[in-house]
Amino acid sequence: MTLKQLQYVVTVAETGNITEAAKKLFIAQPSLTASVRELEKEYGFSIFIRDNKGVQPTPEGDEFLGYARQVLEQAKLIDERYTGSRKGKQRFCVSAQHYSFVVEAFVELLKECGGDKYEFHMRETQTYDIIDDVAHLRSEIGILYLNDFNETVIRKTLRDNELTFKKLFTAKPHVFIGKNSPLAKKRSLSLMDLKPYPRLSYEQGNHNSFYFSEEILSTADCDKEIVVCDRASLFNMLIGLNGYTICSGLISEELNGPGIIAKPLKVDDHMEIGYILPVNIPPSQLTQRYIEILKQLL
């Protein structure tokens, strides 16, 4: 095993295609294929599955790639420490449900650690995709919530994907509404208060199960429902249609403006919001620092 071989397999995983990886690495495709196969032979398992659509990591390959990225990162740190120069881009990716504090921490991490060259990804996405991103190492960390309703299903999905959940904090249910909503003057809201108004929620794609819903109480009866894919659309409709969404209550006015306010919801429920990581792969220094920033903001 060499550092060059590790860089080869990581690049293949990133591109999902041997030809594209060879172009990116500036080597011949047969040489890249031979190097990957030599590494697979050395360790006695297939790192990738090859088909007409390209290549995908095997379960063993996923774990191996996690360690490969760690070795390459440590090698880069050694080089920077003793040569005094930083080479290449800083790379980091987080997948999360639609929480403004996650974006705020991302911004702080980028300001602190981005440097002169970086490639950072902030993926506000569907719940199942968060799990899949972290399981397949497309993201270093994922942010989602558990409660009494979804915990059994989500924890089983995490175990099946060899992921662990770490709680950041427990939130009481709140409702986001526009600051000029007819409900804005109330100190707290009940489900009956909300009944005349449209409920907004996030699309969950092929896994649109109630257990993967981003909003708690998703099974509660509602006459008017609007489903969106992004936070900007949801906030615009909260304001324009006097709608609401059930949430954690945490919002950054600096990032989202003053038009949205949070009101406590009078229900007996809670949200344990936390982060997910691979069980067998130690978090990178950027991931550790991101978690620290999350905790500081909260």
Provide tags for this entry.
Arc Repressor Mutant, subunit A, D-Maltodextrin-Binding Protein, domain 2, 3-stranded antiparallel β-sheet, 11 helices, elongated
What does this structure look like?
There is one protein chain. The protein is an alpha/beta fold and 298 residues long. Among the domains are: 87 residues, Arc Repressor Mutant, subunit A (Orthogonal Bundle); 103 residues, Periplasmic binding protein-like II (D-Maltodextrin-Binding Protein, domain 2), CATH 3.40.190.10. The chain contains eleven helices and twelve strands. Helix 5 links the parallel strand 3 and strand 4. Helix 1 crosses helix 2. The longest helix is centred in the N-terminal third of the chain and has 25 residues. The model has no long low-confidence stretch (mean pLDDT 88).
